[in-house]
Amino acid sequence: MFRRTFWFGTGVAAGVWATTKVNRKLKQLTPDSLAATAANKALDVGTRVKDRAVGFALDVRDNMAQREAELDDALGLNAPVDRELPALRQHAAIENRNDPKSVVDLRTTYSYNRNEDH
């Protein structure tokens, strides 16, 4: 009698398990459930694509900044800048010792009129 009860209980448990599995599968195959599953998968794919695109854009930006720094170094644009103004240049003057008007005093400033040359 114990054997019969055991096998009867095993059959009932298998029947309940099979019925539950079949009902779950039927609910998954309804149109509303299929649409929801498809929408969720589409959102997952969209999220993965967006994350990869953002990662790619960040990689491109980092590599671009690195290459720009390399080019700046190669061109000397990152060299320290001397903040002092350069010393005033004094032009050599040709003087005619015989003509008193041709002696140039570098301490005085002369206005330059561009129309005088024409």
What does this structure look like?
It is a single chain. By secondary structure, the chain is an all-alpha fold. The chain has a domain at 2-78. Helices cover 61% and strands 0% of the residues. It is built from two helices and no strands. It has helices at residues 2-28, 31-75. The longest helix is centred in the middle third of the chain and has 45 residues, at 31-75. It is rod-shaped, with a radius of gyration of 46 Å.
How many E-type strands? 0
Characterize the biggest β-sheet.
none
Q: What is the count of DSSP helices, taking H or I runs of 4+ residues?
A: 2
Report the end-to-end length measured between terminal Cα atoms.
Answer: 133 Å
Query: Rounded to an integer, what's the Rg over CA atoms?
Result: 46 Å
What structural category arises from helix and sheet content? Answer: mainly alpha
The residue-averaged pLDDT reads 82
Uncertain runs are none
Anisotropy-based shape: rod-shaped
Question: From N to C, what is the helix and strand string?
Answer: HH
The helix content is 55-70%
What fraction of the residues are assigned to beta strands by DSSP?
under 5%
Features:
rod-shaped; 2 helices; 118 residues
Provide a concise account of the structure shown:
With 118 residues, this protein is an all-alpha fold. It has helices at 2-28, 31-75.
Question: Helix and strand layout, with pairings?
Answer:
Blueprint: H1 2-28, H2 31-75
